[in-house]
Amino acid sequence: MLVVRPAGPADIDALLDLAFLSGKGFTSLPEDRAVLAERLALSAQSFAREVSPQHAWYTLMLEDTETGVIEGVAGIKGAVGLDRPHFSFRVMTLAQYSSATGTRFDHQALVLVNECTGSSEVGSLFLRPRKRQGGAGSLLARARYALIGANRDLFAATIMAELRGWFDERDESPFWHGIAAKFFRLPFEDADRMITATDGQFILDLAPRHPIYLELVDPAAREAIAKVHRHGARALAMLEDEGFTRSGLIDIFDGGPTVTAPRDQIRTVRNAQTLPAAAGVVEVAADERLHLVAVPGLATFRATLTPARITDDALVVPEATLAALGIRPGDPLIVS
Prior knowledge:
This protein is an alpha+beta fold. The protein has 2 domains: 2-82 and 115-175 and 188-196 and 220-270, Aminopeptidase, CATH 3.40.630; 272-336, Beta Barrel (Barwin-like endoglucanases). It has 10 helices and 16 strands. The chain has helices at residues 12-22, 33-47, 136-150, 174-184, 188-197, 201-206, 219-223, 233-242, 267-270, 319-325, and strands spanning 2-6, 57-64, 70-77, 88-98, 103-113, 120-127, 158-162, 212-213, 245-250, 257-262, 273-279, 291-295, 302-306, 309-310, 315-317, 332-335. It has a 10-stranded mixed beta sheet, with helices on both faces. α1 (12-22) packs across α2 (33-47). The longest helix is centred in the first third of the chain and has 15 residues, at 33-47. One of its GO terms (molecular function) is arginine N-succinyltransferase activity.
């Protein structure tokens, strides 16, 4: 059975393996053992409530309980932009009119902004290729929202997500080469690494301070603006299904889109209910979906997809589900 659980320092080898598999442009999973070890230490502190909610970073692992193999990872940041600015480009329309010539032009432009301060962020969603079918991605993604819904006081009223931008068949970013590299003048890999390995001062030092008119930009870079990586299309669809919408913000390095949603309007959060668990046989029709169930709380959090029957006073699930989640009959369960 696949179960989502809190990550800790013992998961470093599995997390590093996933980081190498994730490939270029997956900024939140750097191929750096020391950085990832710090991430896991912070995750353990976050789940133990040893850091402030704004500075918490919760890392979740998708584990196959039968094999013990870690099949995926996802994360939630308590808040972004507090210790350093969280820069994005906003795609804006600049209108210009001349009465002397009787002409009007609407120019599309990129403007550097810092608008996401204080928002909580879901991200770092990555699965091994063999697990990208059969609902594993949905379980891992929705487990984040179940954790948020069970601990609303720890998260901001707005939840955001940044998606990896478009890379071509040569695994190169047209947006980086056509726009961002002209200001940072670094290899993409170096800039990508510095996002997580430094305080980000280089962005403040080098990022453009004036609007970038898109009429002056290389067409390939222009077409990549707000375009999602081929491996991120499914992630975007799942976010939109939960109620996230495009914000008009894009990543300053690869042009990937930022989507946002009100915390309490996320579908998994909005539809969740808490009931006492009960063990029993649950018949599932061929066209019936599995239910997301989760153990509330923080350090005790677990989530899985399972057959379930909702009654007036209990949530009936198979005995194996209770065992995988580490709970007993009568313990509370979230179902969505």
